[in-house]
Amino acid sequence: MEFERDHNTSSSSLPSLCKQLASSTLRGSLEPHIPVVDLSASDEDLVVRAVVKASEEWGIFQVVNHGIPTELMQQLQVVGKQFFDLPEAEKEAVAKEEDFEGYKRNYLEGIKAWDEHLFHRIWPPSCINYKYWPKNPPQYREVNEEYTRHMKKLTEKILGWLSEGLGLSPVALTKSLGGEMAEYVIRVNFYPPSPKSELALGAAVHTDIGAITLLVPNEVPGLQVFKDEQWLDLEYINSAVVVIIGDQLMRMSNGRYNNVLHRATLDKENLRISWPVFVAPKHDLFVGPLPELTGDENPPKFETIVYKDYLHQTIRNWTLDKLPLY
Fold it and tell me: Which portions of this protein are annotated as coiled-coil regions (predicted)?
């Protein structure tokens, strides 16, 4: 599709686009603020409108009072940091093999991406391979399984509101991702302090390949989004969850929802850690504009293709340009 070739920043056009982006970051009182949505508001219609508006105009927002216990989020961060504090030999016990899952040090030359990360599936149960889940610290599995239950509930709630924003039934987007077989993957990003932070990135410029990402950061800032020709810092809000619209929601909504370019920067003195959960369709699903959203007056702007083919093509394009996945 002509539109997809010209406007889909997640496809083969992304590497060349990334090289053109200015490196300057806007800070100060005039900086636009990434939307924050309070999910405890008594008027759910207002919540729905706020979530839809943020997804259309920004492709990223933060949610507060979201129902995930603060203590559980703290436990998630504790066991994650405890894993990265282990000796290298213990971390290598869950090292990556042929698949994307597992632990890896990712200090790349050229673009200078600098991180360690732990990557593994958390849903559905039939796809989980516990050999990539650390056995140390001992509480790691229990905490992550409890977190998964809450994260899945929150994700489906947000997808329901986004479905309503498209004039569809609340379950439309969740069903289109495969329902209970939609894949949830957590990645724990560990960004050590970098004395030359201006020469390195924790994660290069990208859009998320999947449908939607829900991320919890520690208190050290570093996530930036590209909007209106400038990089904007994400404000840290204690216990907030960052919601990022990915390529597949953009494609399924026929461009109504915006996939946002973002990157992770490093701090000169402080450790950054983040816990994104990536939600994606079943790999064998055909993904494209939902039929209910297209017609003679609103033709499809994106090609409908099997998700695994989209995934492999996008990763191959990024790899050729020496860009990391996230």
Answer: none
Distance of alpha carbon 277 from alpha carbon 216, whole angstroms: 9
208 secondary structure, DSSP code: -
Q: Tokens standing for 178?
A: 């495969």
Residue type, 12: S
| Ranges assigned E (strand) in the chain | 25-26, 36-38, 60-64, 102-107, 114-123, 183-191, 201-206, 212-217, 223-227, 230-233, 241-245, 262-265, 272-280, 286-287, 305-306
pLDDT tens track for 82-105: 999 999 999 999 998 877 899 998
Pairing state between β 241-245 and 201-206: unpaired
Dihedral over alpha carbons 280, 283, 286, 289 (to 10 degrees): 10
Residues 181-217: pLDDT tens digits?
A: 999 999 999 988 876 655 556 677 889 999 999 999 9
| Interatomic CA distance for residues 113 and 274, integer angstroms | 15
Q: What is the arrangement of strands in the sheet containing 262-265, beginning at the earlier edge strand? A: 25-26, 230-233, 223-227, 262-265, 201-206
Higher pLDDT, 19 or 132: 132
Q: Any idea which of 87-91, 143-147, 156-160 has the lowest mean pLDDT?
A: 87-91
pLDDT single digits (tens) 122-142 = 999 999 999 999 999 999 999
Residue corresponding to tokens 């369709």: 281
Query: Rg of the Cα trace of the chain?
Result: 19
Of the candidates 146, 223, 234, 138, which has an alpha carbon nearest to the alpha carbon of residue 186? 146
From 91, 143, 147, 146, select the one nearest 117 (Cα to Cα): 91
pTM of the full predicted structure?
Answer: 0.88
